[in-house]
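User: Please predict structures.

Assistant: First:
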Amino acid sequence: MPTEPRTPPSPTDQPADASTPTPTPTPTAQARATQSAGKARRLRTEADKLEAFCVVVRAASSAADHAAFAEVSRAASKALQAKFGGGTITSVFAWLTSSAGKDALDSVLAGEVELSGSLSVEQIVEAVALAQKAELLRATQG
């Protein structure tokens, strides 16, 4: 009776063995995953802050007079207190023009994090430009 040569079974032909341990990530891989998750959270937080602050800038810049600006300022202070634990229109403008604000904008522009609010990227860029102009004026007049 002729016999055919036997080929050893491939590992994929084997049934899964529940006792076979699954490989665990190395500590370096775990550290990288933790860093990536941390970076993603930080980028998300900064993008949310960028958007919220740009909403404040847009509202402040559209105020028709001092009374309207004061109302925007009061509303912004309440919203900033609720969402970020505090803040003023002045601190919003200062943050947007700081290196932290620039980094947040750069992350959005580079596509590292997406906007989740109602403003478009163009509206964010315009609001940051308004904040820069206002800070420049404040610095030269203050």
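Second:
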Amino acid sequence: MTKHEMVVSVLQSLGLKPQIDDDGDIFVRYQMKTFYVMGANSDDEDYLVVVFPQMYEVNEGEETKVLAACNKTTREIKLAKVYIDQTLKNVSASCEFYYNGEESLKTCLDKAIEILGMVRLTFIKTMRSFD
């Protein structure tokens, strides 16, 4: 079984319905959010990144506040990285991990998706705390 096939299989075993986009990337819908699993097409190492892209749109003039909220959220949710993109227009989050076998992959994917499911709410609360 390839790494890509194993990721799809594990996501299905978690009760999710993984889909493949035109580039071959795997994505799932969870709690009305779309998460991408990056690195599944590479068989080099047992490393993956789960990404929650464009979870927040940055309004003009709030870039500094958003950057501070990204930093604070990243500190509070230890395994997630929350960041503003280079255009300063969107905030995304990711969770990176190494795994060792299928059972480890299942645990890591489950935890990464759970963590990213909480990131947006934590980020929004942090943004509101700056008002």
